[in-house]
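Researcher: Let's do a round of design. I'm pasting the structure tokens now; please hold your answer until I've finished.
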């Protein structure tokens, strides 16, 4: 288990380093790209501002098209590429309408789609979800009585079996970070981000073993941070993207890679004087050895991770 101290996360900027993302090759030129997921050479992303969003895909041959069966909507959230029971690609997502009510769906990228049912107890909603073959991993957000609110958390479900609730890092429990912002599922490995004032990125097996975690974001005083991207690369490695801002300093997008118990990071520092909430990257995806970033105003780029040499893995 690795514990990342808050002081290491929000260390003061000593030098205004150039943003590494500026030189990254553009894979999809879509200045309106918002979120991304990638698997087996296919990329799916959300495009457009809140109130008018679409899902698009880029196939391994480079062809770009709208995702069939995913009409324009107020917003798409928690998009994730996985596989169905036959090993074919599908994308899961939350589609939200103007009233902010959201449906959780799967889509096979050929126009066939359906809503997930029988996952939510009364007064609960899905906050994020991912599918890998016959298994789902998902976050529940529950309101109502104190007992019902305690149902909020991370779950897995295999076929028709009863859902299994997975643990959160001990510090997430201690500091009340229970809302599941992001979920990724690959094979028998689940990764998630639990949020409150402090945000924790963690992964474990689908049976709740081999927990690995770190503090990914904290919002205190004049600092504000949000873990906005999550992706599993392998059974031992998962990635997280955090956007961080502090009054008077340039904005930062921080790319974290956790391999086993070792956490490395790369800070992508925005230009001095950039507008508030403008970052060098706002989401990430990993497909094999390729790391993708969503760069506002540009699109989707392939990024060569350059971790801070002062935080080496053993």
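Researcher: That's everything. Go ahead.
Model: Designed sequence:
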């Amino acid at each position: 288990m690795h514990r990342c101290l808050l002081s290491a996360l929000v260390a003061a900027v000593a030098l205004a380093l150039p943003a590494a993302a500026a030189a990254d090759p553009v894979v999809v030129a879509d200045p309106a790209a918002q979120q991304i997921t990638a698997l087996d050479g296919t990329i799916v992303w959300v495009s457009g501002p809140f109130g008018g969003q679409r899902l698009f895909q880029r196939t391994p041959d480079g062809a770009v098209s709208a995702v069939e069966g995913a009409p324009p909507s107020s917003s798409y959230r928690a998009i994730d590429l996985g596989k169905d029971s036959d090993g074919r690609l599908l994308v899961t997502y939350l589609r939200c309408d103007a009233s902010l009510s959201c449906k959780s769906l799967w889509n096979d990228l050929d126009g066939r789609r359906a809503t997930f049912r029988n996952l939510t107890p009364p007064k609960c909603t899905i906050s994020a979800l991912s599918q890998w073959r016959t298994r789902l991993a998902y976050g529940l957000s529950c309101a109502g009585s104190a007992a019902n609110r305690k149902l909020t958390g991370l779950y897995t479900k295999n076929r028709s079996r009863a859902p299994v609730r997975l643990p959160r890092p001990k510090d997430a429990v201690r500091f009340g970070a229970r809302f599941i912002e992001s979920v990724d599922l690959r094979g028998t490995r689940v990764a998630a981000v639990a949020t409150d004032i402090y945000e924790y990125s963690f992964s474990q097996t689908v049976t709740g073993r081999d927990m690995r975690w770190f503090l990914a974001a904290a919002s205190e005083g004049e600092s504000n941070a949000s873990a906005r991207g999550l992706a599993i690369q392998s059974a031992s490695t998962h990635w997280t993207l955090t956007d961080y801002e502090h009054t008077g300093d340039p904005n930062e997008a921080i790319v974290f890679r956790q391999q086993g118990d070792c956490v490395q990071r790369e800070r992508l520092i925005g230009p001095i004087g950039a507008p508030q909430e403008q970052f060098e990257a706002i989401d990430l995806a990993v497909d094999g050895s390729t790391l993708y970033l969503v760069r506002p105003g540009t699109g989707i780029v392939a990024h060569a991770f350059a971790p801070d040499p002062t935080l080496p893995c053993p």
